Amino acid sequence: MRETLRLQPVRRRSRPVNVRGVIIGGGAPVSVQSMTNTDTSDTRATLAQIRELQAAGCDIVRVSIPDRKGARAFAEIRKETDMPLVADIHFNFRLAIAAIEAGADKIRINPGNIGPAEHVKAIAEVAIDRGVPIRVGVNSGSVQPQIVESSSNMAEALAKSALGSVRMLESLGARDLVLSVKAASVRETLEAYRTLARSTDYPLHLGLTEAGTALAGTVKSSIAVGSLLEEGIGDTIRISLAADPCEEVRVGHVVLRALGLRERGIDLIACPTCSRCGVDLIPLAEAVERELGAIAAPLSVAVMGCVVNGPGEARAADLGIAAEKGGGVLFVGGEVVGRLREEELLSALVFEAKRLAAEWRPGTVGLGREAMRTPECVVHE
Amino acid sequence: MRETLRLQPVRRRSRPVNVRGVIIGGGAPVSVQSMTNTDTSDTRATLAQIRELQAAGCDIVRVSIPDRKGARAFAEIRKETDMPLVADIHFNFRLAIAAIEAGADKIRINPGNIGPAEHVKAIAEVAIDRGVPIRVGVNSGSVQPQIVESSSNMAEALAKSALGSVRMLESLGARDLVLSVKAASVRETLEAYRTLARSTDYPLHLGLTEAGTALAGTVKSSIAVGSLLEEGIGDTIRISLAADPCEEVRVGHVVLRALGLRERGIDLIACPTCSRCGVDLIPLAEAVERELGAIAAPLSVAVMGCVVNGPGEARAADLGIAAEKGGGVLFVGGEVVGRLREEELLSALVFEAKRLAAEWRPGTVGLGREAMRTPECVVHE
Predict the structure, then answer these.
(1) Are B276 and B305 in contact (CB under 8 A)?
(2) What domains, with CATH codes, occur in chain B?
(3) E strand or H helix at B74, and its extent?
(4) Burial, A300: exposed, middle or buried (Cβ in 10 Å; 0-12, 13-18, 19+)?
(5) Which segments within B225-324 are labelled E, that is strand?
(6) C-beta atoms of A37 and B275 within 8 A
(7) How far apart are CA A211 and CA B355, in angstroms?
(8) pLDDT score of A6 more than 60
(9) How far does B14 lie from chain A, in Å, by closest CA?
(10) pLDDT(B365) > 70
(11) A49 touches chain B (CB under 8 A)
């Protein structure tokens, strides 16, 4: 058996769109987005959150611009960071134009609430003129009522709304478009994106809308975004959670890593424990996850409680332990390197992980913010 | 638009297997399993955990039997609960026989570690004689080495191992079989289950092995189990987490609800908040989730921060608020029922949810432990 065989999704072909050096589509690694939830006009708080998001591995940050004051603050924020910034606009086309003029790297508009076609045209003209991509971001909560009426279900309405906006923007000469069709329902979201994937070659921004709290939102987003990525659909993702935005980024990276699409940080393989478990494993696994949370190197670490599956998993990982009564066997690179007492396990795993991480040489992307491997890299390595 | 259209997966046809009244397969609602992680021979602790799992919505509980002492304890536990119990056996076929004789409702064996074929036969004979179903539970960490050698990848090895055991058990006359093929990798797991789904009509128990801590395990399991269920594959699920087993049950129900397969408890729709948010929404959403955690009635509750998507989502939910500066609009059954101050929002949502839950009349399944709607019910309502 070729032990290293990776079963990665074959990705849908899409056009590349450049957002300040981060490419969305065109076979580029799937980027991870999030959105600030500070008061945008509090530039200090917003910049601080942008920096936290950057440190957590966020590739592109969206900032909402609710009013003139927000637009002025956005111009200040733009000067203070080189993170790719997307301006999120609802209702008011003048704010969209102000955001583009302030240096937005992309704007997101929702055709359901931007008003008459002339307003969309006014935005498009400025965006095309300045080479700023537009995301057409349709949400189930605010899709145009006349489209909802004429559709047999919400998935169809979402796709129709997005494709209608695409035709309109194309007629104005726009080509740098990214599309999203988010529902709160997983199945509606899946069907809407599948329709888009069949109908256009624009890159797709995946996500659910109003996904929920950390637990429910993580589950629903993982299913929706994960299923689509596994089908090869999706070029950039945002996991919406009613939680700290950095949590959205962490979940996003776990989704991408789970599918072999991108690897950043520790892949912790841990068993759920049962009566065979010889050590206090859950606190150990949690401590390992916590202590290694800042590592960007893609390392698999197995924390296993017994001799049934333990040795197999620990051997297959970059690093791991298979516990036995009161201690465990340490594996590094598939080899047994020692037998440790329970109280030594955490420090040994942390020490070895940091050592392996220091040896690892990152590939970079975009502005070099972040270590990543693309599926292509993995195949050729 | 038919607003209530549900897009549920069309499920693969599988044979029904009866586990103490809970049907796995045959179109029955997807059941949620977990596993105790107490020392099995501590019967008091194990029974306490079984009761906690039952209260959390677990349909079937697995208990590992590592030794003779565990088998004796299992017999005691069996007498004290009518929860469907699965005995988990590794290595020792005599323990499997002891567990069947002690009243196990199903046994789980791993062909990779049960030893020579005569041992599997000895188990099968007793199981068939007593009408006890067998789960053939193959894991990537312990699949037979000779099968791994002769396979081109782990997904193939997992499916081969399971199908080989099926043929052997069928030759002995066994028909009440449930199959699982769990890898720690999402893609390997997906491919292995897809192969089984094409090759047999036995019901499938879905899960990943060694999925990881609460966060990583929830993401990986949601993608794997969610993708398969969305394809119509899967009859019973276990979300393996290195965490409290009750958490596995909670995540399992969120996965099923997200796909419209089963509805238990509150479906909380919450927005991730942005600078438009008029109230302190994340703590409010978390408090609503916490206060309504014990409700079994399937209610959707929207907690939305602004007027962009808020009214649409709040109107579509059974109950919801769309916040505005310092307060919010309360929706019940799609109608505006009042405008509240921020400090009134939590108590109003909790009051209305409890009122709606009290009006709701549960459908039941199995031993009537739990409220659920099946897709069929939803369609006909």
Answers:
(1) yes
(2) 17-258 (3.20.20.20), 267-372 (3.30.413.10)
(3) helix B68-80
(4) middle
(5) 236-238, 266-270, 299-304, 319-324
(6) yes
(7) 24
(8) no
(9) 23
(10) no
(11) no
